[in-house]
Amino acid sequence: MDNPNDTLGKRFSAFWIGVGGFLIFLVAGLTVKFTAPDATEGDPTLDSGKLETARLETRKGIEDAQAKLLGYGVTDAEKNLVRVPADSAIPAALAMLKASKPSKTERVIPGTDTAMEIFKKQQAEAEAAKAKAAAEKPVGEEKPATRELDPAVVAELREKGKAVYMGAGICTTCHQADGKGLASVFPPLAGSEWVTGSDERIVAAILRGLAGPIEVMGTVYNGAMPPQPHLTDEQIAQVVTYIRSEWGNDAPPITPDQVAYAREKYTKEAGMFSAATLSAEIPDDKMLPFSDK
């Protein structure tokens, strides 16, 4: 059924009304675009060139901050800690390792020619130190006189010293019950100049220990004696008196007060003696002082 209001004239009029409205909006939009003032005009902070520069600076700051946070810390040639990007951390570390020259540590095996050369060098240094000490020794300085002890006291020291020496394997494990030691490793005590010489030296060796090569009666031994600070002054005086008067040895006894003096003097520092350092620090003629008690 046809609509009486839908005529060709009405359709033509509606078409031109729509075209007219479109043209009006088009003209209005163009007018606004070309007549409105520029938003950046008169404001130097909004200049396009400066805006681009500011954008680039901000971006660089962000990238630098990321590099510091995400980069790896490495040490340069001057030992300064620096940060490098993650992608260049490994090459930088490799370059520094290549440039560095780590020191070479030489391992010395006991009994080898190298060990003997070191021992001979230490002996020479010890002899030089002893010669220097003798040259600097004041004229007229006398070796301490031997204190005469009651024979009964000496006998008791020897008897108790034998019990210490034989007991719990403290001494006999290495030096043996007969005082002859073990070949090439643990030196003999029988006839040893280290036992019958300076009493201060033997006591210091017991308190601090002794490691490395040592020459006894012309033979070199290469073992170690651990420190024995757990022994009391009485026990050390007893065992030293025993070994200095057993197996043909003939050297004066020592007393607990002398051991106490040595303990105070030599246990302030840690570390075991070597034969060279012990001989240099305590010459063969250096004896423990006596107490007036």
Rounded mean pLDDT score: 76
Seen as an oligomer or otherwise, the chain set is single chain
CATH architecture of the domain at 113-135 and 148-281: Orthogonal Bundle
> Please, how many helices?
11
Structural class: mainly alpha
Report a brief summary of the structure:
With about 290 residues, the protein is mainly α. The chain has helices spanning about 10-35, 50-70, 85-100, 115-135, 150-165, 170-175, 195, 200-210, 235-245, 255-265, 275-280; strands at about 70-75, 80-85, 210-215, 220-225.
Describe the fold and architecture.
The protein has 293 residues and is mainly alpha-helical. Among the domains are: 55-96, no CATH class; 113-135 and 148-281, Cytochrome Bc1 Complex, Chain D, domain 2. Helix content is 52%, strand content 8%. The chain contains 11 helices and 4 strands; from the N terminus they run ααββααααααββααα. The chain has helices at 8-35, 48-70, 86-99, 113-136, 151-166, 172-175, 193-196, 199-208, 233-243, 256-266, 275-281; strands at 72-75, 81-84, 210-216, 219-225. The strands form 2 sheets. Strands 1-2 form a two-stranded antiparallel ribbon. Strands 3-4 form a two-stranded antiparallel ribbon. Helix 4 runs parallel beside helix 11 (275-281), helix 8 crosses helix 10 and helix 9 (233-243) crosses helix 10 (256-266). The longest helix is centred in the N-terminal third of the chain and has 28 residues, at 8-35. It is rod-shaped. Mean pLDDT is 76; it is low at 139-146.
